[in-house]
Amino acid sequence: MKTVIVLLSLGFASRAWATPSTQIWIPSTNVQPYKTVHLNLDAYLRSQDENSGARKGPVSVLGPTVGILPTKRIQAEAGFDLMYQGDKILDNNPLYFHGKIGTPESSVAEWSPAVAAGGYNIGTKNAYTNQDIAYVLAARTFPLIGRLSAGYYAGNGAALRDEKGEVANRGLLLSWDRTMKEISDKLWLAVDYQGGQSSLGSTNVGFAWAFSDKTSVIFGYDIYNNRAVAGKNTFTVQVDIDL
Which CATH architecture has domain 37-242? Predict the structure, then answer.
């Protein structure tokens, strides 16, 4: 899942991918286990030139996420990211925070879904990086189908706007993911969606391969709802390591 910020010509910040435990793009109901230190290394590369003929440089994201609660029924994580995206204002303010609390599937009753709530893209530059997104999600795994997730997010309207400068700070969160055991326990597929007309709005498809119990890599493609704000679609590569 995973975050980027692009400064618009209108003079406000549009995008950020901060990285709580995610699907490809949106947060997931997964929470890092207690004392686990998870490191993400993410890159986003434009699939084509912008309308101006120039191609925006890659965006890189690096940061840890740590499990902070010792209980099994209620879990929590917290972390931060450093994001560099080729813009002076944004790169001078690269620090973003995120946190999440949740409960796994079947923790309350046999049928109960996983539920998580948290915040991300909590930046330090007013009206540029302080997207301050809060969200809630629920997920349930079904035989053969895989896991389905649904939720909602809302953020800071001063930083999340469309190409006309109108507030675009909320929307749906949806996803499907599944480990493809018929092929390999190491292969995972996912599709996720974030609603809205800010740069956060996106449909994303991808797969991951687990090279070991502690290391996996996601390869994905990000299709933006509003390319007038977000720019051209991106390829993403995300390396996840448990230390």
Answer: Beta Barrel (2.40)
